[in-house]
Amino acid sequence: MSFLEAFTAAVRLLGAWDPQVVSAAAVSLRVSLLATLLATLLGVPVGFWVAARHFHGRRVVELVLNTLTALPTVVVGLLTYTLLSRRGPFGALGLLYTQTAMVIGETILITPLMAALTMAVVGGADPRIEETALTLGASRVGAALTVLAEMRRGLLAAVVTGFGRLISELGVALMVGGNILESTRTMTTAIALETSKGDFALGFALGLILLAVALAVNVAIAALNPAR
Domain 27-185, CATH 1.10.3720.10 — does that match? Predict the structure, then answer.
């Protein structure tokens, strides 16, 4: 099949709302959105604490967080698999090869990224924001929320960046999801499978959706950071 034929067939599949395409896209979006939410809830407080507080070993913590942002997805997938496998500490929960396992793995993957990005955003904030909030009677938590509110544009860009990484993730989804049709098959795992089988049309269709999502992510980042 030529490139033009595969591309034409892919557009036809998209226009017909092919069930496999819709299912894979839905799983990808569901898992990525939930993992991004959990990673944000975990990573943002850690990043804020590291950036806003002076403590012994802070440089080491910053170095570790920045290093973990480049953690290979297959390593995270292997770690999650080991934790959730039958012989692992959480094997009795029966979570392996489920969307929950994928969410757990992807949350582990980008939590350091969310923490590092938050650290960078808060580190660039004017220290007088927190000082003023405390002077006006705010608690430590209230002052922290004030700083985060002032830096919301940067934080939203960090969240969008995290989601953008997860929607195109392959290693974790494949290793702990198992690529099960209409259950844990995502767009990236489906592309890998269908391409290996020679079904380039379905692979192209899913690739076009991924490109559309990537475009939407970049448009969102541009909107959150308009040129001054």
Answer: yes
